[in-house]
Amino acid sequence: MTSGTNQSEARFDFVVVANRLPVDRYTTAEGEPGWRTSPGGLVTALTPVMERLGGAWVGWAGADTEGISPFTHNGTRIVPVPLSAEEVESYYEGFSNDTLWPLYHDVIAPPTYHREWWDSYVKVNRRFAEAAAETANERATVWVHDYQLQLVPGMLRELRPDLTIGFFNHIPFPAYGLFSQLPWRTQIIEGLLGADVIGFQRVADASNFTRAVRRLVGYETKGTSVYVPLESDSAPGQTGGYRRGGPTRHVLAKHFPISIDSASFEALARTPEVQARAAEIRSDLGGSGKILFGVDRLDYTKGIRHRLKAYGELLADGRIDPADVTLIQVASPSRERVETYRQLRDEIELTVGRINGDFGQIGHSAVHYLHHGYPREEMVALYLASDVMLVTALRDGMNLVAKEYVATRFDQDGVLVLSEFAGASDDLTQALLINPHDIEGLKDTIMTAINMPQPERAKRMKSMRKKVRENDVERWSTAFLAELERSAAARLDEARGHRVGAEQQ
Ligand SMILES: O=P(O)(O)OC[C@H]1O[C@H](O[C@H]2O[C@H](CO)[C@@H](O)[C@H](O)[C@H]2O)[C@H](O)[C@@H](O)[C@@H]1O
Ligand SMILES: O=c1ccn([C@@H]2O[C@H](COP(=O)(O)OP(=O)(O)O)[C@@H](O)[C@H]2O)c(=O)[nH]1
Question: Chaperone as a keyword (predicted)?
Answer without folding.
Answer: no
